[in-house]
Amino acid sequence: MPRGRYSLYDPHDHTPLGEEHFHCATGPSGWRYVSQLTAPSGDHAGSVDLTLDDLGRPIRLQLHAASWQVRGAALDGVTWVRTDPTGEHATEGNVPAHAFTGASPAFHVALARLLRLAPGEGAKRIRLVGFTSPVLAPRTFDQAWALVDRTAHATDNGVLTVDEYQVSDLETGEQHSVHLAGDVVLAAPGIELEELESPPSSFA
Predict the structure, then answer these.
(1) How far apart are CA 11 and CA 23, in angstroms?
(2) For a tag on the chain, would you pick the N or C end, based on fewer CB atoms within 10 A?
(3) Higher local confidence (pLDDT), 87 or 181
């Protein structure tokens, strides 16, 4: 069960945004990721709880940020309920999309698991609903993911396979790289892996 800490920052000006303390695990029915977020001051800033089924589909999502809350799942596309800080108003949403995304490293792993790309296969287009802090407002957009490189690295715990993905925003044309080892993000815009207490899990 990988457990560790990511530092989060603004990918444009590198302003620190806080840290995400996480643990995740694979199981016979899928994968689960749980994390707590802290602000640069050290104060609690939110949480992420994401569960995927064996095909990589989001069967349960819970996000908290600044007292806002989102609960979602893959249902007739993706469906969610967003609740305001007072708890008095809840807004339901449904979009014919494939998955959720957001600032958490969990979503990079989830999308790679859902797409199951092979090196040289070419890019796949995917429609996403993203939630951004601090109010978790939903936005629907399209990305294209391509697995551009897969390398094996010898470590004390055996061979570590690292996948490099090229991710394209189909609305703006912007591109960036995401490096994954199993269910751990090694590097991505706005994300740095600072601590890892045990090796990444590999998906069968």
Answers:
(1) 24
(2) C
(3) 181
| Single-letter residue type at 15 | T
3-9 and 191-196 as β-strands: parallel, antiparallel, unpaired? Answer: antiparallel
**Average pLDDT of 102-123?**
95
Segment 149-161 mean pLDDT: 86
For residue 79, the tally of other CB atoms under 10 A from its CB is 16
CB 92 within 8 A of CB 110: no
pLDDT for the residue numbered 204: 63
Rounded to whole angstroms, how far apart are CA atoms 146 and 119? 8
Q: How far apart are CA 137 and CA 151, in angstroms?
A: 37
Say if CB 187 and CB 193 are below 8 A apart. yes
Residue 93 near residue 80, CB atoms below 8 Å: yes
| Sequential DSSP letters for 122-171 | --EEEEEEEEETTTTEEEEEEEEEEEEEEEEEEETTEEEEEEEEEEEETT
